[in-house]
Amino acid sequence: MRVTFCTDLDKSVVVSNCEKRGWIQVGPEDEWNVYWAGTMTCRSLFSVDSGYRMNDNQIINHFPNHYEISRKDLLVKNIKRYRRDLEKEGNSLAERGDSKYLHLDFIPTTFVLPADYNMFVEEYRKAPQSTWIMKPCGRSQGSGIFLINKLSKLKRWSRESKTPFQQQLTRESYVISKYIDNPLLIGGKKFDLRIYVLVSSFRPLKAYQFRLGFCRFCTVKYDSSVAELDNMYVHLTNVSVQRHGGEYNSLHGGKMSIQNLRLHLESTRGKVVTEKLFDQISWLIIHSLKAIAPVVATDRHCFECYGYDIIIDNNLKPWLVEVNASPSLTSTTANDRILKHKLMDNIFSIVVPPSGIPDVRWNKIPTQQALGDFEILIDEDLAENTENCGSLKNGCKWK
Ligand SMILES: Nc1ncnc2c1ncn2[C@@H]1O[C@H](COP(=O)(O)OP(=O)(O)O)[C@@H](O)[C@H]1O
Ligand SMILES: [Mg+2]
């Protein structure tokens, strides 16, 4: 059988990877087996109106309601619900101490505005010295983000952004999160981690973490003083923001590999705490996925590769900032190109069965070799079948 692919993303990393596998490019109206689509295309294919029915040999790179994890407000809502549910069932994971969750405190305190304004004010008053970050729920690449350290600034913003044509209901919603003001710095600069996570099924949950993530650095030194509050080159690590910064280094594109970060931390902080940090990162990824698993319309045709944004604070605690359902495949450097090529290659090896032909009836248990640079985060099927477990405890490395 010949395998066909279709993409509405004109990225050479997608096309070259598919062609390398001998797949033939076709248009969206033709018979395709693999579709690397934008999120909107995927949603319209799955919409009731489209009348499109996929057959067993078709797979696509998004779940229809990926926004449950990629929208900033819904991610927070789902994680809060997950913690409440665990608490109700008396699960020790949801234990609290000092009114904080001991194990599930991995997102900065966050409220949705305007809906949760009163709750936010209550929290704000507990520590009026804190800085908060405002982010529009549905945007990306640092667009529309600003920091506030006074309630009056938020009130002024609210007044100014209200025009007669934009009534409360139609206004864009925002999340307001506690700003992590003690980020781990390297060379005096703030950075965040981009970690790729592939999910081939939500129920049962099957997720893989890519070993080759990277850190994205700010171009200017970190400075938490009020004078620099509006300077986004200090506070936002997005490549799209920093690219316009004065000291942007096109040679390494403001990036450092995760392996080098690990070596740096092992030598400056020690092996044990470094190991613990990376375990905690995997732990938070697993629980963020478990939090959305019950609400994702899991469909056997779908898989998705997420770009996790994680900030490490100066105490080596990782914080989940957001999850992208369409992480950038654009390369800024030669190393970046190699990494993204490998990423794409490994994704296809995992989601396509050994026969090389997409088939949703497959049990989605890839061979060790097919994993490439991915490692299993969790596979609830393996948890049931202990014979296949190998080194995994109950199908999950970090229970
Ligand atoms: N709570 C926070 N504390 C510190 N920095 C943050 C926080 N939230 C976001 N940032 C910074 O802002 C950047 C953009 O925020 P993010 O939520 O990823 O939105 P976007 O969709 O615009 O990328 C992050 O990469 C990080 O550098
Ligand atoms: Mg981001």
UniProtKB/TrEMBL annotation:
SUPFAM superfamilies: Glutathione synthetase ATP-binding domain-like (SSF56059). It is found in: Cytoplasm, Cytoskeleton, Cilium basal body. Gene3D superfamilies: ATP-grasp fold, B domain (3.30.470.20). It holds the Pfam family TTL. Keywords: ATP-binding, Cell projection, Cilium, Cytoplasm, Cytoskeleton, Ligase, Microtubule, Nucleotide-binding. Transmembrane segments: none annotated. Coiled coil: none annotated. InterPro entries: TTL/TTLL_fam. PANTHER family: POLYGLUTAMYLASE COMPLEX SUBUNIT TTLL1 (PTHR12241:SF31), TUBULIN POLYGLUTAMYLASE (PTHR12241). Belongs to the tubulin polyglutamylase family. This is Tubulin polyglutamylase TTLL1. It comes from Molorchus minor. The lineage of its organism: Eukaryota, Metazoa, Ecdysozoa, Arthropoda, Hexapoda.
